What does this fold into?
Amino acid sequence: NISSLNSFLMGFVIFGKLIDFSAQGLDVLVHRCIYEAAKGIYEQILPEVRSHLKSCKRATFRFTGHSLGGSLSLLINLMLLIRGEVPASSLLPVITFGAPTPVKPDQPKY
It folds into this structure.
């Protein structure tokens, strides 16, 4: 939607840089500010994620959020997957509500 695109572009104008995930085998550029926020949350939840995986053979995770929380949820889900912390079979679809896209708008859809 146009509001999400405007939010992304305004953040890009103010903060500039995008984070490139091509080294992880993904052709995607992520908004720097959203990535920095997601990294902080990721580091906080990682011990709990590992503990849950260790204690439950069929552990699953679902991330959800509204607005910026939705963008963060999507990116944290991606980070857990590409960093090999959680198998794809344990990650349920992310549910967002009114979330601005954390990736560059002209990136391919996955």
Remarks:
- Helices lie at 2-15, 32-55, 68-82.
- The longest strand covers residues 18-20.
- Strands lie at 18-20, 29-31, 64-66, 95-97.
- Residues 32-55 form the longest helix (24 residues).
